Amino acid sequence: MYYAELVSFFAxxxxxxxxxxxVVQEAYARVLALQQDGTAVRNLRAMLYxxxxxxxxxxxxxxxxxxxxxxSLAIVQPSQAPTTEQQVQARQEIASFVARLEAMPRKRxxxxxxxxxxxCTYAEAAECMGISRDAVDQHLVRAVMDLAHFRxxxx
Length: 155
Hints:
This protein is mainly alpha-helical. It folds into two domains: 3-64, no CATH class; 103-154, Arc Repressor Mutant, subunit A (Orthogonal Bundle). 79% of the residues lie in helices and 0% in strands. It has seven helices and no strands. It has helices at residues 3-14, 17-36, 44-76, 87-102, 106-117, 122-129, 133-154. α2 (17-36) crosses α3 (44-76).
């Protein structure tokens, strides 16, 4: 019903008609799922725009998180930092990377995730964790060493 209008709107901001079509399709799917779950949608057009914007924001966040994780992988193995061609393979390594993180002590893992994945500063991580900036630094050094050591064991 509003498909062409929505595609035109999102194509303007995304600079890609194909990406806009994907966003609109996902927006329709999410709104349909809401309706099937019993949510009343009074203004379908407005809901589709709002959900479409949420889809775009979710995708940007996912890409940012993925980029930070790929950077973290590059720190762990700097001589093999993923190139554009290697990114597909690096994505497959993320599952292994997460398993290595889960094997770390809680505070070490939390500091690493806050700084390296979520992009917090040492001060923000320290405040969130209730520890000093120096303690955050020590946890990060140990986390990187753990990850590098684990990488050596895999090789």
